[in-house]
Amino acid sequence: MKIARMAIIVCIVSAWNHSTEIFAQLSENQRFEITKNLDIYNSLFKELNLYYVDTLDIEQVIQNDISYMLQQLDPYTQYIPEEEMSDFQFQTTGEYGGIGSVISSRNGKIIVTDPYENMPAALAGLIPGDEILSIDGESMEGQTSAYASERLKGQPNTTLKLKIQRAGEKKTREITFERKRIHINPVTYYGVLEGGSGYLYLSGFTTQSAQAVKEALIDLTTNQHVNSLIFDVRDNGGGVVEDCLDMLNYFLPKGELLLSMKGKVKQMDRTYRATQSPIEPDLPLVILVNGNSASASEILSGTIQDLDRGIIVGSRTYGKGLVQATRQLPYDGRLKLTTSKYYIPSGRSIQAIDYSNRDEDGRGSSIPDSLTTVYYTSHNRPVRDGGGVLPDFVIEDEKIPTIIYYMEAGSVFFDFVVQWRATHPKIASPSEFVLTDDIYREFKEFVKSKDFTYDRQSGRALEALKKIMEFEGYYDGARTEFQALENKLTPDLDKDLELHKTQITKYLAIQLMKQYYYAKGQMIYELRDDAVLNKAVEILQNKELYNNTLVAN
Fold it and tell me: Domain 187-397 falls in which CATH fold?
């Protein structure tokens, strides 16, 4: 493997020389600079490897070089070595061979965190919190989650044996599994809401997602006779653009412009139009988005907005308007690199970060409003580029208290739910469950028993202010007032558990739903109290509001 890494660098010059079509398009000076600097690199590395006082870890040195080089570009340009290709393919296809469960490594233990519904792990009885002691007789103590994951994966219809320890039990369990082709349905949940609106949540864009959405859409319209559709892509980070374009075909007229891609290599520029007759050309449509809706989610929502085919509700999207393609590398690696930018039908780009200009910390800079441009939708409504997709109805995401972030990072919710389930094998369904004060009291006692600690942004800001005041000589004169403020901002666990009870209760209930009823149950519970969804329902039930929103003022 070390030789393989070395070969990537050594072969760069010859690879460039063989890429004659693109290399020939460069100026003579550009070609000279490429060849010169790669020669310098090869010679430098050769001298280091031969004469440096210590033996170089060739793989580590070159891996670091590659990582540093790509970090100067954008977060999406990545080198994928051979050993990581299976994970990359899973992200693209949503399929792999295994038992169907997410695992994690904590304190030297391999823990089952999320078995997928109706997959071998769940069907065999694995539940979140189970510790995997061994796989096929090999101890997992001290191993990484990546190491354990590779041993859980394998060809479908092959078997493996796990020894597990379950919370609340003294004896270990041994379970034999048969691996299957694991397919994660990207349509996590769909159903009919009060008033006849259909609802569909899409978790990601894979090579299977367009077909999954089509099947759900046909069921909702043909069998359940919905009168409108709410298409939820909140927290959907994107994926396969081709499947996104297929979905747009379901709602837009054949021949309609959907997307353009433009980059440095003009031969790779593309224009995409709807190629099929739509399934539902007139069904009233609302798309839900938030700050984690990115890439293909933004193509979907932005194109629908530009063509005035539906209404967007939620908060401003992430702003990823860069297109990636993969290129084959020696020794079965891949380079995933940004090749172009995409433009939705109005002509605007949604890219929100300029990675060519970075601050002193190396972060890309946000595109200021003064540099954005106004574009117009099909009905002449103004929209702007350079900042993701701004919804037609903006509902900002709920602010999450710092204490919840610390509880999530410290697995406090997860650990409590695992312990609680050991004595509560059943709970009410997601549509009926209520987290009682008794459960919350148990949770508070659990948190206190774990010596849970946390700090707050206000406390860190106050400490930074104190250092500045001391440096500038103002602290002694304001010591009494500063200490009084410091006392008020000191974390108080009992106080904060009561102050943020409503939000903590919600997060705790979500973890319980996921523990007992998987991702689908979690979603059903969350939708019971969802301000963005409620706004979408309100819009769809008011035809005048819906129609007027899609017309320029």
Answer: 2-enoyl-CoA Hydratase; Chain A, domain 1 (3.90.226)
